[in-house]
Amino acid sequence: MAVMNVNPTRMEMKRLQQRLKTATRGHKLLKDKTDEMIRRFITLAEENKRLRRETEKDLAKALSSFTLARSQTDARIVEEAILMPGRTVKLSCHKRKVMGIDVPAIDINDSGGELYPYSFLSVTGQLDDSVRGLNAVLFKLIKLAETEKTCNMLADEIEKNKRRVNALENIMIPQLSETIKYIKMKLDESERSATVRLMKVKDIINK
């Protein structure tokens, strides 16, 4: 590891020793934070995987019911039955902190209106199943989007922190250590040279 281009003085050595102390402490804190982020990411990723699996299953079931309803009912009647929704869902987005990172949080405000905006006499039970299933899966889709975005943001931050940890561990800390050793060696050499010169002067005086 190449040493820094510095003046080999005691003042410079003290300054670099302080920088090394700060870098070492920062490296530990950053590594601990990254390890905790990874643990949190794994938990969220498992939750995201479970939620995605459930959502895909429920969505497939609801779409299957809808396909069956369309095959048993006139397409115009099905279209008219679902054209005007009986309830409104409003979303509001804000931020929350996860390991110091601002991640999205989505609040759902369900109007609680009529789930089936049509006459039961005009459609089959499959359409009811489809509407009920799609209504339930909507909330899971929103939660899935929130969880996936959080996972992506955590993964990006983990990658950034890993690069910082590696830079401290493999570049800055070794370079500071080597430079401090170099300065100490130079100071020792200067001290020995000064001692030799002093002894020579004493010898000359004594003669």
From TrEMBL:
GO biological process: proton motive force-driven plasma membrane ATP synthesis
GO-annotated molecular function: ATP binding; proton-transporting ATP synthase activity, rotational mechanism; proton-transporting ATPase activity, rotational mechanism
Pfam families the UniProt entry points to: ATP-synt_D
Source species, domain of life: Bacteria
Transport listed as a keyword: yes
Matching InterPro entries: V_ATPase_D
Coiled-coil stretches: 144-171
Keywords assigned: ATP synthesis, Coiled coil, Hydrogen ion transport, Ion transport, Transport
Protein family membership: Belongs to the V-ATPase D subunit family.
Annotated function: Produces ATP from ADP in the presence of a proton gradient across the membrane.
Protein name: V-type ATP synthase subunit D
Organism (species): Candidatus Fimimonas gallinarum
Encoding gene, per UniProt annotation: atpD
